[in-house]
Design brief:
The protein has about 375 residues and is an alpha/beta fold. The protein is built from 14 helices and eleven strands. The longest helix has 21 residues, at about 330-350. The structure holds flavin-adenine dinucleotide. Flavin-adenine dinucleotide binds near residues 137, 140, 197 and 264. Flavin-adenine dinucleotide binds near residues 138 and 216.
């Protein structure tokens, strides 16, 4: 039982007196000096003998309580009544401050309605793995951008997993960005990843007239205007446009000072790069959590293409393992999973606050990795 925090966790859609009718309703909570909103807190108390704290999501409850081992329920029968529950929104910086590793999955918006439905099913299937949150990327130069808010809204408010929208400056004026942020806030979302975005291939980045030049400008714009937790991108092996690593890190400090509450790194394959980067960042006064980004690789061609795009080094040992499995899809998949799992174990052991998985909308590798981590 956690003392010192008010016990409000989930709201129950419907009237507040639509109670469970079980013991937690009348006794327990008041006796412990706790507040209650609706009857969900009473329900949690009645079912688990457990009181719950403000801002806790079902995902967090399930991490915290061994008896709460089911996926987050959206509808449940309690005291003979059907209750519909909504997750309380939760800021990612609060999750990270909470101590446990926070695992997250990144998806991009699919191009077709059928793809959209399939993605929602895939994300729903991840619920038993209790991800802290799911993030949805913002397409470059207008592709699928309109869907992002709708998708994060559905993930959080229908599936019941906390969600974060990516938002980039590319091709947007301030007013357009403000419109997206208004829609996020209206949907009750609390997290956004503030990005500059990439230019079209082969061209340098040019800010849109009336828009922003850097992610730090966007973070600064959001802070104070919308009550959102702001994430930012970080590059253990340096951003490709930066003249050198020190300048890139100095720019990252600007982003943290502009309001980024946490950072997620670009993918990398050698943990030493992450740990050295975190140490340098701390030395410069960047004190927000830095979540490592990991992408399980499926084959040699994929790793060369992706590493080339983002400038990540491929360790010799990884290249030779993947080469040995080349041509055998199952073996390549297993090598990719094994490497990423070793990376995750090393990262968590070394104090990383969680892992952000780049899924490329294929969840089987990340499912395998996270299942293994959960049972470590
Ligand atoms: C976790 C993660 C998620 C991503 N998701 C998406 C996505 O959904 N959609 C998408 O299009 N792209 C996405 N990207 C890619 C990202 O948009 C590109 O890497 C982009 O080139 C840089 O974005 P940024 O936010 O890091 O930019 P910035 O932080 O603005 O940095 C860009 C460059 O400008 C420099 N810089 C930064 N601030 C200053 C300053 N004040 N003065 C001078 N120089 C400065 C930096 O050193 C760097 O070289 C993602 C990247 C990561 C790591």
């Amino acid at each position: 039982m956690r003392k010192g925090k008010p016990a409000v966790l989930v709201s129950v859609e419907g009237s507040a007196d639509q109670g469970c009718g079980s013991r937690g309703e009348a006794e327990g909570l008041a006796g412990r000096g706790l507040q209650r909103r609706g009857s969900a807190a009473a329900w949690a108390d009645a079912v688990f003998g457990w009181n719950v704290s403000r801002g806790w999501t079902w995902a967090r409850m399930s991490r915290a309580h061994p008896r709460f081992d089911r996926p987050a329920p959206r509808r449940l029968v309690c005291g003979g009544r059907l209750l519909t529950l909504r997750c309380a929104a939760m800021r990612i910086d609060s999750m990270l401050a909470d101590g446990g590793p926070v695992f997250s999955f990144e998806f991009f918006p699919p191009k077709t309605p059928a793809g959209h439905e399939a993605l929602l099913r895939t994300i729903g299937e991840l619920q038993p793995l209790r991800p802290g949150f799911v993030s949805v990327t913002y397409g470059a130069m207008g592709s699928n951008r309109g869907q992002v808010v709708e998708l994060v809204d559905q993930i959080r408010n229908q599936i019941g997993i906390e969600a974060m929208a990516h938002l980039s400056c590319t091709g947007h004026t301030r007013d357009e960005i403000a419109g997206v942020l208004d829609r996020l806030a209206a949907a009750g979302l609390e997290n956004v990843l503030a990005l500059r975005g990439d230019p079209p291939p082969g061209q340098p980045f040019r800010p849109t007239p009336g828009g922003f030049a850097y992610a730090s400008d966007l973070a600064d714009f959001i802070r104070g205007r919308w009550p959102l937790c702001i994430g930012g991108a970080a590059y253990p092996e340096m951003h490709p446009d930066a003249p050198d690593a020190d300048t890139d890190l100095a720019n990252l400090l600007k982003k943290a000072r502009a309001g980024a509450n946490f950072l997620v790194t670009q993918l990398f394959f050698d943990n030493a790069d992450y740990f050295a980067f975190v140490e340098r960042a701390r030395g410069l006064g960047i004190n927000v959590p830095i979540v490592p980004g990991i992408m399980p690789m499926a084959d040699v061609a994929q790793i060369r293409r992706i590493a080339g795009m983002c400038g990540a080094k491929i360790p010799e040992a990884m290249a030779s393992r993947l080469s040995a499995a080349d041509g055998d899809a199952t073996a390549s998949f297993e090598v990719g999973v094994e490497w990423a799992l070793e990376q995750c174990r090393g990262l968590l052991k070394g104090g990383a606050p969680g892992v952000h998985f780049y899924t490329l909308n294929k969840s089987s590798a990340t499912r395998e990795i996270l299942s293994a981590l959960r049972s470590d």
